[in-house]
Write a structure and sequence with these properties.
The chain is mainly α. It contains 3 helices and no strands. Helix 1 runs antiparallel to helix 2. The radius of gyration is 17 Å and the shape is elongated.
Length: 86
Amino acid sequence: MELDPTEMQAVVKRLKRAQGQIGGILKMIEDGRDCQDIVTQLAAVSKALDRAGFAVIALGLRQCITDPQQGSMDVESMEKLFLSLA
C-alpha cells in the first residue's frame, strides 16, 4: 500500500527531528558526556521512532478504511506490521 505523501509530512517531520537527536547523541558521546544524559536522549529518540512507526500504521489503517479497494494489505498483514513495532 502506498501512503499519501501529503499525509506523511508529520511523520517525515518527526523522523527529521529524531535524526537531529541522533546527531546530538553522537556528539554527546564524542564529547564524553555523562552516561545518564546519553541514555535519556537515547530513550527520547527511541520513543520518537516508535511514534513515527505507529503514525504510519495508523495512516495505513485509516486509508484502508476510507478506501478499501485501493489498499493491497489485508488485516493480518497490518496486524503483523503493528506488532513488529512492539
